[in-house]
Amino acid sequence: MSTPFYVSPQQAMADRAEYARKGIARGRSVVVLQYTDGVVFVAENPSRALHKVSEIYDRIAFAAVGKYNEFENLRIGGVRYADLRGYTYDRADVTARGLANVYAQTLGSIFSSAAEKPYEVELIVAEVGNAPEDDQIYRLPHDGSIVDEHGSVAVGGNADQISSYLDQRHRDGMTLGEALKLAVESLSRDSNGGERTLAADQLEVATLDRTRPQQRKFKRILGRQLSRLLEEHGTAASGEAADDASDSADAEGTSGSEGGSGTS
Asked: What is the pTM of this model?
């Protein structure tokens, strides 16, 4: 009888981490920035049916890169957790910190389990507060760790290069237009140092706006409204104009990307 091939636990975990990182790196990046009135999410995503950014609860939003079917399962689980907790206790008891802890436990259990492959996803959970200092942004890598972020964060693709670019240029008190301009500039930079032009129809943009009078602070920026913001700040060529009704749409949508179970 042959002796089973032995792989040390350290090597097995390193291989799983490398596998997950490669899958995440194939996805197009998502950038999250704080601005004076809230938090803005900007993703390179030409799809209008599948979203990388989505609402979770009143003041909480979710962004992800990687395998669509995997982070969509996580998004749905997060919505169910938030709804159940808000219904059982109080809406104020649903927080980004609590949701991040739930996601961390799920991702950590999957990553450490030898029975299944690790999830090829990286998540961002953000909550807008009553003031900029109360905003919360958490990044969750594939292994279930939690990173408390401030100001700006990027995931997927060439996230390291984008994060470095954002760290040098992001500042407190930026307007939505200024934050959007910076986000698009960072996403337009190639890993080889070149620059591309991203049109409005190649972007998915949403905000958590603390100034909205309603309880739900999530809003998608679509169509002519997005094109106008980009043109005013000279960040990109405008995409095809959408109907006026799309300008203020608060679509919840699904959280995804370019296709089915592929990487996004």
From this structure: 0.85
